[in-house]
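Field reference: sequence -> structure
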Amino acid sequence: ADYLDMDSSLIVSMHIRSIDQSKAIRTIKRTITNVDKMKIEEVRPDRVLCEVV
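Structure field:
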């Protein structure tokens, strides 16, 4: 969706804090891994990576 073309007003709040660069890199790598996992699960919905017994 293109938020700039909306007819209504939109308020966005951002809460930003500084973090250590190495911690930021680990967080980004973890996020990329999670996105890749979601992509795989989308392609193969019949295959469960972790099954709860």
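Note: The CA atoms of residues 28 and 34 lie 10 Å apart.
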